[in-house]
Write a structure and sequence with these properties.
With 377 residues, the chain is α/β, with parallel strands linked by helices. 50% of the residues lie in helices and 10% in strands.
């Protein structure tokens, strides 16, 4: 009797959450077909400030600085870097570059208020100090293209306040580990969802290593006020503020000349801590976004439960296999469109391995991120 009731319950929940998931994917697929590149060409061109928060980034910050200082933007632009209590030779590298290029400004942070997110504090200080009308943000371990600013500014058509850019993990043939390749696929999945979501005025996610917004918008919502103590979310929590009353005022940039490269995590432990950190901020999203993400999460939970209970019920086994296959087909169709948009078709072969571990890894990361702790420098 118990097994029978449990079987009907699991099958019913799988059907409800699975239907929501598939409908969402169909809407995502249709939304991806509407995305386009921006065409803004205002004169005079806006003053742009590139903002970077750096803490102990000596290993790669030279490459980052070389890339951001090589912009071909015709308008006025400068670069502002916050040295956030670095104890390696990051300060010396920044001083060296600042001496060579007057467009680079360094802001030194020696201490932060107790309980405040270090990165949000650093960005707030940078935004207060800089003169840019449009703020372009990236991280100290990323590489941008010379056309980055030019392409991003073109997205700021009338009424647009925030532009979420695309970043990806390079996977050179023969030089990339399995972990890096699977991260590249998972990262792309987030970018595809973010792109489709913004096209639907449903801002699900963005990334702080390729993000731009107007300084006037940042000031109008009082910056990171009310979210300053949340360790993560300097990107999408700000986007959620805009979503409360102007969801149409943001867009995702799909122009290839704005794509940014970022580094994947070399160890499973680093990846695990990062994913927990990402999950920890989702409860602070708008109610509508929390509902959508909760429904997706519950579907993944039911997939995991059904997989565990399959040996004890043929009905649950059939339901699990059916929903897993449907999920795989829906995911692959959606991802394939994303691969084409972002010119990463070579990652297709890694999609099936990611599908196998996607549900359990996501469920565990969310649970540990919301109810546990995570480490972040």
């Amino acid at each position: 009797m118990f097994i029978t009731v449990l079987t009907y319950l699991v099958i019913g929940l799988l059907a409800v959450f699975g239907l929501f998931y598939i409908v969402l994917e169909v809407r995502f697929f249709r939304a991806l077909g509407t995305v386009r590149t921006g065409t803004s060409d205002v004169e005079p061109k806006p003053h742009v400030s590139i903002l970077i928060s750096a803490r102990n980034e000596s290993a790669g910050i030279r490459d980052t600085l070389d890339s951001v200082l090589a912009q071909d933007y015709d308008g006025e632009w400068d670069v502002w870097v916050a040295d956030d209590r670095s104890n390696d030779n990051t300060p010396e590298i920044l001083a060296e570059y600042a001496t060579r290029d007057p467009r680079l400004h360094v802001l030194t942070i020696e201490e932060i208020p107790e309980g405040v997110s270090p990165k949000k504090h650093a960005l707030s200080r940078l935004i207060e100090a800089c003169d840019g009308e449009v703020l372009c943000l990236t991280d100290a371990d990323c590489i941008v293209q010379p056309s980055w600013i030019r392409g991003i500014v073109a997205e700021f058509e009338p009424g647009i306040e925030l532009v979420a850019g695309h970043s990806y993990i390079p996977t050179p043939p023969g030089k990339s580990s399995i972990l890096i390749c699977m991260q590249a696929v998972e990262t792309l999945i987030y970018r595809v969802a973010g792109t489709a979501g913004l096209a639907m005025h449903l801002p699900l996610t963005s990334t702080g290593n390729n993000l731009a917004y107007r300084k006037s918008f940042f000031n109008s919502v009082n910056g990171f006020e009310n979210v300053l103590k949340i360790q993560s979310g300097d990107d999408d929590l700000l986007m959620q503020k805009l979503a409360t009353d102007r969801p149409w005022a943001m867009r995702y940039c799909i122009a290839p000349n704005t794509f940014v490269t970022t580094s994947g995590k070399e160890t499973l432990h680093e990846l695990w801590e990062q994913r927990k950190r990402w999950a920890s901020k989702t409860i602070y999203y708008t109610p509508k976004i929390v509902f959508v993400l909760s429904m997706v999460f519950l579907f993944l939970v039911m997939q995991c439960i059904a997989a565990l209970l399959s040996p004890f019920s043929i009905g649950i086994l059939i339901a699990f296999v059916a929903t897993f296959v449907a999920k795989c087909i829906g995911d692959l169709v959606l991802i394939l469109r994303g691969l084409r948009i972002f010119k990463q078709e070579h990652l297709l072969k890694w999609c099936i391995p990611v599908e196998i571990i996607h549900a359990p890894f996501t469920v565990l990361a969310v649970l540990f991120g919301l109810f546990g702790r995570f480490k972040w420098k």
